[in-house]
Write a structure and sequence with these properties.
By secondary structure, the protein is α/β, with parallel strands linked by helices. The chain has helices at 10-35, 49-59, 72-78, 91-107, 122-132, 143-149, 165-179, 216-232, 241-247, 251-272, 276-289, 292-298; strands at 39-43, 62-64, 81-85, 110-114, 138-141, 182-185, 190-193, 198-201.
Length: 302
């Protein structure tokens, strides 16, 4: 479903209005990220650190890979947003994750839990169960990971899902209602729910799955947009139209905005790339140059 400027029926009018509102909030939040760059703390896996930092810089945020005990907690208290990604959870990092999650909860820092490859691997599965109890602002994972985090299934095939987004929707809504989190199910169609609202987003390109860190870096961008949305709560929304739109944004809006920016940039990059290697560079460039008009032209609801 694309945005229609002159729909012919009442149903189309409602859909067009919804799409228009969503994309305008997304543009306002992207502008906010660039105007007042959020500081994003990343406790993430060793495979994707460099790509994640470059993606954050490209979208307009600042990256800090503070992931050791005694530093992770204090930093989470002052960061704009926090990402906890379970991709390579060695012992010291696991301690830092728990410390940071507790600090984020105590200090009101928005944070993202990415429960990579849980279900089939016992250490990270137990850790994810402990972390989600600290009420992440957002849980982001593939369908098998979301099902496993909710206590069902046996996980996917490593980091790859063996379930569909619709398979995971009940689990996602259960997590959202239990922990007060927004839940994003990644896939060809991205599904976002807060237990009440549910939205399906249809942008993106398969080349994102062919680049190491293509999914993991999205969690960091989500943390940046969550931080920007939280910052607007104390801002005088009357100053500009963009501020007014961003000022009304919540975690659900921020999640949708992050996915929209990320997946539209992926589409643009894919059109310019000759394969996964060139796609990675084109993707970072596309994020850095992403415009509101590009979001308006390409935004698609499923």
């Amino acid at each position: 479903m694309t945005i229609r400027l002159a729909p012919e029926t009442t149903a189309e009018t409602t859909a067009a209005t919804t799409a228009h509102d969503i994309v305008e909030r997304s543009i306002a939040l992207l502008d906010r990220v660039r105007a007042q760059p959020p500081l994003v703390q990343c406790i993430t896996n060793s495979v994707v650190v460099n790509f994640t930092a470059n993606v954050l810089l490209a979208v307009g945020a600042s990256a800090a890979m503070v992931d050791i005990p005694a530093e992770a907690g204090p930093f989470a208290a002052v960061a704009s947003g926090l990402l906890i990604n379970l991709g390579t959870p060695h012992a010291e990092q696991r301690e830092a994750m728990l410390e940071a999650a507790l600090s984020a909860l105590a200090h009101g820092t928005s944070w993202v839990l990415d429960p990579v490859a849980i279900g089939s691997l016992p250490v990270r599965t137990a850790l994810a169960a402990e972390l989600v109890a600290h009420r992440p602002t957002l849980v982001r994972g593939n369908p098998s990971e979301i099902i496993a985090l909710a206590g069902g299934g046996a996980g996917g095939r490593g980091v790859d899902s063996t379930d569909t987004g619709d398979d995971a929707l009940d689990a996602a809504q259960h997590l959202a209602r239990t922990f007060g989190s927004v839940v994003a199910i990644s896939g060809p169609i991205d599904i976002v729910t807060d237990g009440t609202r549910t939205l399906r987003l249809a942008n993106g390109d398969a080349l994102l799955t062919r680049v190491t860190g293509g999914g993991c870096a999205l969690g960091a961008v989500m943390a940046a947009f969550l931080g920007a949305a939280a910052d607007t709560a104390s801002t005088d929304a009357a100053s500009t139209d963009a501020a007014a739109s961003a000022g009304s944004a919540d975690a659900f809006d921020a999640t949708v905005a992050a996915i929209t920016a990320y997946t539209v940039a992926a589409e643009i990059a894919a059109e310019r790339a000759s394969g996964p290697g060139s796609f990675a560079a084109e993707f970072v460039d596309a994020l850095a140059k992403l415009t509101g008009d590009q979001l308006r032209e390409r935004f698609v609801l499923a």
